[in-house]
Fold this protein.
Amino acid sequence: MQFMQDFGSSFIIAFRLVSSFDPDLAEIVRLSLKVSLSAVLFSALIGLPLGAILATSRFRGRNVLIIIVNALMGLPPVVVGLLVYLALSNAGPFGWMQLLYSPSAMIIAQTILVTPIITALTREIIEQLNGEYAEYFKSLCLTRWQRLTALLWDARYGLLTVGLAGFGRAIAEVGAVIIVGGNIDHLTRVMTTAIALETSRGDLSLALALGIVLLTIALTVNAAVMMIRNSAARTAYA
């Protein structure tokens, strides 16, 4: 009975923290969004053109490269965190940049995790469209750049869902960011690492509050994906 009372009071405090947007809670949420959105932006800048090139080009080793990209979608986060840690540590090749245990290191780790996802999904979408439009493009005698531009524009709704999928992957990451970020209060503490820390401390109210925010973000992302898909379907049938 006492456990249920404590659990219930933790939920009440958690909702109060969320509704009042507690300063500590707000700081953690802002950093989480900053890190994840930055990682998705960098991943999109790399993954969108790479995926489009893989979809429209034919060259030796293309299938091997596609297999590698698809395999990298399942990269273990802790392995990525370890590799980034080794690269950014004082003994590593990029130690002189002094990025370890900073938001920049967390962005790098998340970018490495998200880029293969965006690349692979972009390739699938663009390759399907390229097959449908191949004869039409040939009849118009379009240049390679014109074809890529037309495909990316026509696939914009699908690519938006790809970006949202990458954001969902980034915002929920814990293994890599805790290795390279260190979960330092007021510096590198994001929602996932804070939930793990506060749960281990027994501070369930803050952990639950962060969990509520994280679930809300996840639901919002999924709702946005559904809305974009429905909008794309209506546009296609218009």
